[in-house]
Amino acid sequence: MLVSKCKHFDAVDNLGNNILHYACIFNNEPIVESLLKRNTSSSFVEAVNKENRTPLDIARKNQMSPSIIDILFSLSGRL
Protein backbone atom coordinates (compact mmCIF):
# COMPACT_ATOMS: atom_id res chain seq x y z
CA MET A 1 0.00 0.00 0.00
CA LEU A 2 1.17 3.51 -0.79
CA VAL A 3 0.78 4.66 2.82
CA SER A 4 3.33 2.09 3.97
CA LYS A 5 5.88 3.67 1.60
CA CYS A 6 5.22 7.23 2.77
CA LYS A 7 8.26 8.78 4.43
CA HIS A 8 7.29 12.44 4.43
CA PHE A 9 4.17 12.72 6.54
CA ASP A 10 4.92 16.37 7.22
CA ALA A 11 5.02 17.35 3.54
CA VAL A 12 2.38 19.93 2.62
CA ASP A 13 1.11 21.34 -0.65
CA ASN A 14 0.67 25.00 -1.59
CA LEU A 15 -2.63 25.06 0.35
CA GLY A 16 -0.95 23.79 3.51
CA ASN A 17 -2.62 20.38 3.35
CA ASN A 18 -0.76 17.24 4.36
CA ILE A 19 -1.71 13.68 3.46
CA LEU A 20 -4.02 13.41 6.49
CA HIS A 21 -5.91 16.54 5.41
CA TYR A 22 -6.50 14.92 2.02
CA ALA A 23 -7.60 11.61 3.47
CA CYS A 24 -10.22 13.58 5.43
CA ILE A 25 -11.13 15.80 2.46
CA PHE A 26 -11.85 12.69 0.38
CA ASN A 27 -13.59 10.99 3.31
CA ASN A 28 -11.26 7.99 3.04
CA GLU A 29 -11.53 6.38 6.45
CA PRO A 30 -9.27 3.37 5.73
CA ILE A 31 -6.46 5.72 4.71
CA VAL A 32 -7.00 7.91 7.79
CA GLU A 33 -6.79 4.82 10.00
CA SER A 34 -3.67 3.60 8.22
CA LEU A 35 -1.97 6.98 8.46
CA LEU A 36 -2.72 7.26 12.16
CA LYS A 37 -1.24 3.81 12.79
CA ARG A 38 2.02 5.10 11.33
CA ASN A 39 2.17 8.66 12.65
CA THR A 40 0.42 10.24 15.62
CA SER A 41 2.76 13.19 16.14
CA SER A 42 1.02 16.43 17.03
CA SER A 43 2.72 18.23 14.13
CA PHE A 44 1.01 15.76 11.76
CA VAL A 45 -2.40 15.42 13.44
CA GLU A 46 -2.75 19.09 14.42
CA ALA A 47 -1.35 20.56 11.20
CA VAL A 48 -3.25 23.69 10.17
CA ASN A 49 -3.73 24.45 6.49
CA LYS A 50 -4.06 27.91 4.91
CA GLU A 51 -7.80 27.91 5.66
CA ASN A 52 -6.88 27.44 9.33
CA ARG A 53 -8.33 23.90 9.34
CA THR A 54 -6.90 20.77 10.89
CA PRO A 55 -7.68 17.24 9.71
CA LEU A 56 -10.14 17.06 12.64
CA ASP A 57 -11.93 20.18 11.40
CA ILE A 58 -12.22 18.67 7.93
CA ALA A 59 -13.39 15.29 9.27
CA ARG A 60 -16.15 17.03 11.21
CA LYS A 61 -17.17 19.14 8.22
CA ASN A 62 -17.33 16.04 5.99
CA GLN A 63 -19.24 14.09 8.65
CA MET A 64 -16.76 11.25 8.82
CA SER A 65 -17.62 8.39 11.15
CA PRO A 66 -17.69 9.13 14.87
CA SER A 67 -14.84 6.66 15.40
CA ILE A 68 -12.52 8.63 13.09
CA ILE A 69 -13.52 11.92 14.69
CA ASP A 70 -12.96 10.44 18.16
CA ILE A 71 -9.50 9.20 17.20
CA LEU A 72 -8.49 12.55 15.72
CA PHE A 73 -9.94 14.37 18.72
CA SER A 74 -8.09 12.18 21.21
CA LEU A 75 -4.81 12.74 19.38
CA SER A 76 -5.24 16.48 18.97
CA GLY A 77 -7.18 17.50 22.03
CA ARG A 78 -8.99 20.27 20.14
CA LEU A 79 -12.67 21.03 20.69
TrEMBL record:
Question: Which Gene3D superfamilies does the entry link to?
Answer: Ankyrin repeat-containing domain (1.25.40.20)
Q: Which InterPro entries match?
A: Ankyrin_rpt, Ankyrin_rpt-contain_sf
SUPFAM superfamilies, per the entry: Ankyrin repeat (SSF48403)
Query: Taxonomically, which superkingdom?
Result: Eukaryota
UniProt-recorded name of the protein: Ankyrin repeat protein
Q: Which organism is it from?
A: Rotaria sordida
